[in-house]
């Protein structure tokens, strides 16, 4: 009897391994087939969908794509919401409402919600669950539910080369300069100058760079050492192991 029980357990384990492999292979195929690219846009008809840009599957809520321009080589992770207009089916005029320049990365679960124009500069990277909106609820009338009052909208502009940390919120009217760092969880409104680091809610500048003085306050860590040109992956691994020794 123990021998039969062991045989049954081994067979069950083998079946579970086979099922697990089949599920993972199937899910990999679904993700590849469901991704949106310029060659395979599916049902989505963006105003522009640049070469090399990819929207991972499953996508979040996407509507108003006729007023959304995505540049070249952008990475849109899973469950990212891209919306132009308050609701589907509106005519938003001749100009784009959401514009992502080349090389923009939107992390998993992020939202870009636009009624007024939102533009994100080239090579700006966003961590997971970043929220960027040009529309905000108003609460002027104390007798009406906030969600039923007409929202206010102001354009949002994010410069090139920025980094927005996990959970950052960019509010209507925000204008971020070049190479701005937004700390995780920061809530940004108003204007942020070039080469600044902002943190907090509401966000404030905690560090800035200028050509004369460098970073102020000074950085607490040494600058990263650039990787030499022409090294193979094996040589890089050997250097890493040498540094750990």
Features:
7-stranded parallel beta sheet, acyltransferase activity, alpha/beta, repeat, 245 residues, UDP N-Acetylglucosamine Acyltransferase, domain 1, Acyltransferase
Describe this structure in words.
The protein is an alpha/beta fold and 245 residues long. It folds into two domains: 1-34; 35-217, UDP N-Acetylglucosamine Acyltransferase, domain 1. Helix content is 18%, strand content 27%. It is built from two helices and 24 strands. It has helices at residues 2-34, 233-244; strands spanning 48-49, 54-55, 62-63, 68-70, 75-76, 81-84, 98-100, 105-106, 111-114, 118-120, 125-126, 131-133, 135-136, 152-153, 156-158, 163-164, 169-170, 175-176, 181-182, 187-188, 191-192, 196-199, 204-210, 214-216. A hairpin with a 4-residue loop joins strand 22 and strand 23 (204-210). It is globular and about 70 Å long. The relative contact order is 0.07. The model has no long low-confidence stretch (mean pLDDT 90).
Mean pLDDT: 90
Order of helices and strands: HEEEEEEEEEEEEEEEEEEEEEEEEH
Q: What portion of residues belong to β-strands?
A: 25-35%
Q: Which structural class is indicated by helix and strand composition?
A: alpha/beta
CATH superfamily placement of the largest domain: Hexapeptide repeat proteins
Helical content band: 10-25%
Number of helices, counting only DSSP H or I runs of 4 residues or more:
2
Biggest beta-sheet profile: 9 strands, mixed
What is the radius of gyration computed over CA atoms, rounded to a whole number of angstroms?
Answer: 24 Å
CATH structural class of the largest domain: Mainly Beta
Globally, the shape reads globular
Distance linking N and C termini: 54 Å
Question: Tally of extended strands?
Answer: 24
- The low-confidence parts are none
Strand order of the largest sheet: 2-5-8-11-16-19-22-23-24
The CATH architecture of the largest domain comes to: 3 Solenoid
Q: What number of domains?
A: 2
The CATH topology of the largest domain is given as UDP N-Acetylglucosamine Acyltransferase, domain 1
